[in-house]
Amino acid sequence: MFTISLAGVPVGIDNRYPYVRWLCRNYIAEDQTPAFTVRAADQELAAELAEAGEMSPAYAESLCLYRSICMKMPLYGAFLMHAAVVEVDGIAYVFTAPSGTGKSTHVQLWLDHFGPRARVLNGDKPLLRFEGNTLYACGTPWQGKENLGCNEMRPVQGICFLEQAPENAIRKLPLGQASRLIFKQVLIPREEEAFNCFWSMLDRMMNTVDFYLLQCNREPEASRLSYLTMRRKQDAENQERIPAAPAGR
Fold first, then answer.
1. pLDDT single digits (tens) 106-134
2. Which of 114, 129, 204, 238 is deepest in the core (most CB within 10 A)?
3. Which residues form the domain of 233?
4. How far is CA 241 from CA 127, 201, 236, 237, 238, in A?
């Protein structure tokens, strides 16, 4: 058993297999007291293995544990989104879509375009939480088959749904359309208290963060288009903060 810190929450891991501790090696927080502890029950582990087919018991345990963690995290102010998050200049950009759509491919375009200015915060299963009035994306050890990510939290600039298309186009989504799409990409808790906390955070996110639909191909222009569009709001906000020059100067 060991303790990790996820989105600022200490979590106890009662594991069977050493793989889980190795997976979480960059998130170990042994000096912290767990807010809660998770363990994969025998029945849950057997069901995961039966459903997945070819999968090691150790890997199956890691999936069961993260699912249990994420079912409880809304009680502590965070929730799971199926998404890839890339950070540029300290700001997080979130891309979400059904598996196989090309999230990892699009994120790679950002890495190629921005070079050392960019890095992957989480390639598949980040946690999201509010700090004050700002939504943050948080790295986790569960970060996709490419295993790209880091133990950091960054403010979210925008959330973008991806669709494959022959030409690149992006548009801001109205709240109703974004709401219909987002439910497919978040983990909804089963227990009432956790669900109520999750629902409150989701509603807050929907009303404070901008959502976009990016129809894109695999050309570099797709990354430039999505960055410039989502960045536009921050540039406007920064401009508003600049004090006007005194008259006569």
1. 999 999 999 999 999 999 999 999 999 99
2. 129
3. 78-241
4. 30, 27, 9, 7, 5
pLDDT digits (tens, 9 = 90+) for 60-109: 999 999 999 999 999 999 999 999 999 999 999 999 988 888 888 899 99
User: Rounded to 10 degrees, what is the CA torsion of 230, 232, 233, 237?
Assistant: 150
Total number of domains in the chain: 2
- List all residues 6 or more positions away from 195 whose beta carbon is below 8 Å from its beta carbon: 74, 188, 189
How buried is residue 180: exposed, middle or buried, by Cβ count under 10 Å (0-12/13-18/19+)? Answer: exposed
From 60, 76, 92, give the residue that closes a domain.
76
Residue 249, pLDDT score: 42
Confidence of residue 149 (pLDDT cuts 50, 70, 90): very high
Give the CATH number for residue 194.
3.40.50
Q: Tens of pLDDT along 23-42?
A: 999 999 999 999 999 999 99
What the block records as the tokens of 184 is: 């497919």
Residue type, 113: H
| Closest listed residue to residue 126, CA positions, set 16, 227, 205 | 205
CA distances from 85 to 94, 196, 203, 226, 231 (A): 5, 26, 21, 13, 15
